[in-house]
């Protein structure tokens, strides 16, 4: 569903902005889904949450009354605003080292993590970020698959027409699409021309008594079906011409 909601060519939605399309998605989706609203836990960190190994270097231990006591030397910095007289000298040295590394450009980005419990929640996040990024998609005029649109005038994607890794054909849909589209339109025009000619020929057979109205009706129905098949590239144009001449 999200594809046609964000498809730039979808009827009724062409003039809508991304937020407006999101509203349409929500209203339609809420009436059909068992999970009309999604709650996903978002966690934000100022350092890579998966790279905490370096923190062990700040741990210290000593024997107090016969027992080992461990602490983090940077723990004193929580009270840094109260003064430095009660802060361990080694903690101040580490603070100075951290400040110098940050000044040299060694600092972390803001990391965002989401806690998901189902594949549906993953899809929800995908939709959420597509909306935030104002992502639009379009169906490729060659392969028929969706692709992300950066230029609304582009009609073809950049996928290889032959995805086989061993293939030497490096052409993409954008390379062959325009020519194929032209040939298809040309073929559609020719198929309609041959269809019209055959229609007149078969209709004349009614007047000459060579075909009944019922026979013509059945032929006409089959001819229209085959014409649509040619247009959909599911029936060969040459075979269609041969059939029309029967």
Q: In summary, what is this structure?
A:
The protein is α+β, with helices and mostly antiparallel strands.
Question: How would you explain this protein's 3D organization?
Answer:
With 246 residues, the chain is of the alpha+beta class. The protein has 7 helices and 6 strands. Strands 1-4 form a two-stranded antiparallel sheet. The protein has a two-stranded antiparallel ribbon with strand order 2-3. α5 packs antiparallel against α6 (213-231) and α5 runs parallel beside α7.
Main β sheet profile: 2 strands, antiparallel
**Spans of 5+ residues with little confidence (pLDDT < 50)?**
none
Order of helices and strands: HHEEEHEHEEHHH
Distance between the termini: 44 Å
How much helix is in the residues?
Answer: 40-55%
Strand order within the widest beta sheet? 1-4
Helical stretch tally: 7
Q: DSSP strand (E) fraction?
A: 5-15%
Alpha carbon gyration radius: 34 Å
| Class from secondary-structure proportions | alpha+beta
Shape: elongated
> Care to count the β-strands?
6
- Mean pLDDT figure: 80
InterPro entries: DUF6076
Pfam families: DUF6076 (PF19553)
